[in-house]
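Hi V.,

Quick status before I head out on leave. The structure for the redesign project is tokenized and pasted below; the design run finished overnight.
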């Protein structure tokens, strides 16, 4: 890939690298290194970028949605940085066309593979952080990622109840019930406390000014608890 291609990429993304080798490394897949021993693959940058991205999204949500409790912040962050969401971002930015791939990966459709493109987005974030620091990362994400978060929230795409119901159905976890366990405050300032129950057992609770809002919070907490138990079972 010529230097002109990297110049075009930086222009398209509105970024500027001091160290062009970091940019190249972010787009270098391990399959390319197998055929070009002088190259460095992007897996370490991906590791760093994942951590930087988690913090950047967490800080953004914390500032923009001060009314959200910890459970919803955690759930939405996880929804935003999951592989599918990062793949769509990378695809929209045409990152795959800049990937440096080995012949086998190229022939097997690596440029459009979701996991590869999601990893490449993380590696790019890691490279920006190393090259230009935290503020440069935030400028990049404010331009290319954070607007998508607002549209996700506005369209109701991030829906804990739907995700919980899908998971319960796929894993055969039983029947879901949302139970109102408490109503707080006067009629003009009511708060609902709702529990999510699977087969009668409480898995999450949420508080909201509407039952729908409280149910979403309770579902988000149930998902996190299911994730924790699943992780513990695999250890």
């Amino acid at each position: 890939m010529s230097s002109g291609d990297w110049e075009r990429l930086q222009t398209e993304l509105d970024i500027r690298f001091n160290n062009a080798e970091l940019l190249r490394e972010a787009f270098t897949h391990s399959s390319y290194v197998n055929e070009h021993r002088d190259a460095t693959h992007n897996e370490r940058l991906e590791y760093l970028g994942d951590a930087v991205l988690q913090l950047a999204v967490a800080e953004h949500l914390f500032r923009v949605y001060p009314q959200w409790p910890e459970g919803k912040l955690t759930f939405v962050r996880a929804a935003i940085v999951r592989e599918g969401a990062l793949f769509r971002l990378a695809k929209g930015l045409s990152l795959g066309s800049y990937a440096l791939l080995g012949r086998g990966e190229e022939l097997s459709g690596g440029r459009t593979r979701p996991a590869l493109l999601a990893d490449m987005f993380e590696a790019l974030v890691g490279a920006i952080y190393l090259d230009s620091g935290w503020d440069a990362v935030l400028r990049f994400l404010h331009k290319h990622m954070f607007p998508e978060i607002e549209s996700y929230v506005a369209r109701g795409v991030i829906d804990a109840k739907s995700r919980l119901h899908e998971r319960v159905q796929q894993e055969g976890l039983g029947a879901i019930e949302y139970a109102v366990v408490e109503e707080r405050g006067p009629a003009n300032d009511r708060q609902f406390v709702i529990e999510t129950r699977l087969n009668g057992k409480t898995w999450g609770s949420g508080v909201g000014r509407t039952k729908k809002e409280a149910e979403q919070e309770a579902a988000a907490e149930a998902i996190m608890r299911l994730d924790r138990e699943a992780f513990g079972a695999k250890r």
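Above is the designed sequence. The mean pLDDT is 88.

G. will cover questions while I'm gone.

Best,
W.
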